[in-house]
Amino acid sequence: MARIPLENRRTPMVRFVQWWSRRKYGAQLEPGLVALHNRRVFRTMMLTEGSVTRWNSLDPTLAALATMAPAAMIGCSWCMDFGYWEYHHRGVPVAKLRDVSGWRDSTVYTELERKVLAYAEAMTATPPEVTDEMVEELRADLTDEQLVELTALIALENQRSRSNAAAGLTGQGFKEQCELRTA
Predict the structure, then answer these.
(1) Looking at the domain assignment, is residue 5 inside a domain?
(2) Exposed, middle or buried: residue 169 (CB in 10 Å: 0-12, 13-18, 19+)?
(3) What predicted TM-score, i.e. pTM, was given to this entire model?
(4) Are residues 146 and 112 in the same domain?
(5) What average pLDDT values come out for the chain (183 residues) when binned by 10 residues?
(6) Measured between alpha carbons, how far is 98 from 102 in angstroms, rounded to an integer?
(7) Is there a contact between 41 and 91 (Cβ–Cβ < 8 Å)?
């Protein structure tokens, strides 16, 4: 159960955000409903998320792993649920999305994907456990532009996951929409 109310005073802005969210995602995103209690925080979140959608130097699978590994490690079920839905729709193989939590024992990941997962977990650890060797291994496969984007995605997901987990948000059923079989 959310620790911060999901209900907001029905201002024109709140009604617009709720309409837009339902239109784009089929539901009102709970992190947005929480953030609407502070309009400045909400505005900053939306500007950030809007900017992030234009980052495109990383392969979608690497971006998915960079965001889902911290969510899994932190235990943000809302982020895992939404991340699965988001990256499923971006064409990331379902097996790679499902195995994030147990990636060390999974056979579905390439060597580069394993390096990304290890890096994401090392960045998420408190204190961070990133080593020079990890970065050098990633630089062998990624450009500096890609490495910066990877690092920023992991850092952003740490913020999202920690905020959502602290707010008590849980999955909204996005993943189940991906599991539906059509005839």
Answers:
(1) no
(2) buried
(3) 0.91
(4) yes
(5) 89 90 91 94 96 96 98 96 93 95 97 98 98 98 98 98 96 71 42
(6) 9
(7) no
